[in-house]
């Protein structure tokens, strides 16, 4: 049994806690949050220990693995301390708020021999994992191109001040759009070669983006399109579309999966009856802990997490310069 501690016990951490408790090889030991009143509410839900200082949690010998779910700009410091304490790390996306801190995290886990997995949850969503399985089975032939579209209200009550600061990893693309950048990259199965982007803030007019359009070219020659809209008023979209030589697959996080062939769409997978995020987290934790126990490489490495940040930074440069940017 692997003892788990949660660093950053906010609202989404409750869903992580449900997944940890569901896993037969993990036990939730403790949580950390600076807000003592909120921490006490969280720990009371699960009958676990609470630490207002995350360093005290890292010194808890009954904990072998930690979830880091702090604000984006704090990821690197907490991850470095966790690696130094000998903990295995599931690090919420984005890996860090810039490339420099991603490199610092990679150096730390290497120096202290900790396992690091970046928590890109979307690929574990039942609808998206089904779509990827169908593609891999050759149902729609060879991959031609892919599209991902995310549209949702950005200015929601859970937004914090750091969400609206560029130098703290804020913005719609880094916070939400990165999920669908990961999906495209996972579906295509190769790293991004270049990006041409238009990034703006038409809805809220804040310091960070709330709209982005990315045209991506991958190293295997496949192209993809990502649209990201953090609207003030609109209709939500959580969709991936995969086009092959013999058909199309459409997957929606909440609505299921369709196969497009012979001029018609056929539903292949019905919507989930429960919370798709909790379902995805159960698969994510099972994958993370299973690989640790089996002494296998994690499925979403720190190098991959850094690549996602490389793509976003290249997209930001592309938008500023108005031209295609090639990644190093």
End-to-end gap: 42 Å
Low-confidence stretches: none
Counted up, domains total: 2
Specify the helix fraction band. Answer: 25-40%
Tell me the β content. Answer: 25-35%
Count the strands? 15
CATH homologous group name of the largest domain: Dihydrodipicolinate Reductase, domain 2
- SSE ordering: EHEHEHEHEHEHEHEEEEEEEHHE
Strand order of the largest sheet: 14-13-12-11-7-10-9-8-15
CATH topology of the largest domain: Dihydrodipicolinate Reductase, domain 2
- The secondary structure category is alpha/beta
Q: What sort of overall outline do the alpha carbons produce when their principal axes are compared?
A: globular
Radius of gyration: 20 Å
Average pLDDT for all residues: 96
- CATH level-two architecture of the largest domain: 2-Layer Sandwich
Keywords:
Rossmann fold; globular; 328 residues; single chain; Dihydrodipicolinate Reductase, domain 2; alpha/beta; six-stranded parallel β-sheet; nine-stranded mixed β-sheet; 2 domains
Report on this structure:
The chain has 328 residues and is an alpha/beta fold. It folds into 2 domains: 142 residues, NAD(P)-binding Rossmann-like Domain (Rossmann fold); 169 residues, Dihydrodipicolinate Reductase, domain 2. The protein has 9 helices and 15 strands. The strands form 2 sheets. It has a 9-stranded mixed β-sheet with strand order 14-13-12-11-7-10-9-8-15, covered by helices on one side. It has a 6-stranded parallel β-sheet with strand order 3-2-1-4-5-6, sandwiched between helices. Helix 1 crosses helix 8, helix 4 packs parallel to helix 5 and helix 5 runs antiparallel to helix 9. It is globular, with a radius of gyration of 20 Å.
